[in-house]
Design goal:
The structure is a homodimer.
Chain A: H1 10-13, H2 17-28, E1 31-32, H3 33-40, H4 44-56, E2 60-65, E3 68-73, H5 79-86, H6 89-108
Antiparallel strand pairs in A: 1-3, 2-3
Chain A binds a DNA duplex through α4.
DNA sequence: TTGACATATTCCTATATCGGAATGTATTGT
DNA sequence: ACAATACATTCCGATATAGGAATATGTCAA
C-alpha cells in the first residue's frame, strides 16, 4: 500500500510547511487568496490547492465576497493537535526536572 | 517536485497515525521492539521502519540492552508541535467566546 | 454580451513514502 | 563455532502527493 491521504486529517494537513504558513497568516483575520499569494510569495494555483486541502479537513473557513474568496483559519480544528501534543507535557516536564536535579547535584559537589 | 521528506521534521513524522500510536505507547516507559510489535499488532519490519523515522527526527531515544533495543519517547521533541498549535489558542478561545455570547443573546430574547 | 479580474481545477511529472517479503546484522547461549 | 533470538535494512510495487503550466469557472463592470 501507500501513504495515507493528506486530506484525511489535520495532522497530515499541517505536516506541510506551506500550509502552516497559510494557517498562521489567516489566524488574525480573513484574507482573499490574492493577498496570501503576495504575502507568502507562492504561486496562485499552489495556494488554491493548499487551501483546498485545509478546507477539506476543516482547518479553514471560506466565504465569498464578490469575486474574492475570503479565507480564515478555523482555530477550533487545531485543538485536537494541541491536545494530543499536550498529553506529553507531563513527560517533558518530568524530563526537564531530572536534568535540573542532575545539574544541582553537580553544583553541590 | 514532490512532497517534503517525512524525516525532515516532527510535524511530518507524527502525521502518520501508527507513529503517533508508537509515541503514545513509549511515553510511559521504554520498551523493546518486540513489545511494540505485540502491543500494537504491527509487523516487526514496519515497527523498525517507523522507529527509524522517529529516531531520525529525535522523537525517540534508543539504547541497547543485550540483543534488545529499548526505545522511549523523547517528549522534549514534541514541544515545538505543542507550541505551534498553542499559538492558536487565543483564537479558538475567542471563537468559543463569540459562540457563547450569541447563545446568551438568544437566551435574553 | 464582452472583457477583465479572482480563483479553482486539471494534466503531467518527479519523488516520497508505506507495507510486505526476503535478507542482513548483532548478540547471547551452548 | 553455531544456532537462535531480536532487530534493521533492502528491494519491490502501488499510491499519494507537490509544483508548474495551461485551462476552466465564476463574478463584476461597462
Amino acid at each position: 500500500m501507500a501513504r495515507a491521504a493528506t486530506t484525511s486529517d489535520a495532522f497530515n494537513a499541517v505536516a506541510e510547511p506551506r500550509r502552516r504558513e497559510i494557517l498562521n497568516y489567516l489566524a488574525l483575520q480573513e484574507r482573499p487568496v490574492g493577498e496570501i499569494v503576495d504575502a507568502l510569495e507562492m504561486e496562485q494555483p499552489s495556494v488554491s490547492k493548499h487551501l483546498r486541502v485545509l478546507r477539506d479537513v476543516g482547518l479553514v473557513h471560506v466565504r465569498r465576497d464578490g469575486r474574492q474568496m475570503l479565507y480564515r483559519t478555523n482555530a477550533e480544528a487545531i485543538r485536537p493537535l494541541h491536545a494530543w501534543a499536550g498529553t506529553f507535557e507531563r513527560y517533558w516536564k518530568h524530563q526537564l526536572m531530572r536534568v535540573k536535579e542532575r545539574a544541582e547535584e553537580k553544583q553541590a559537589r
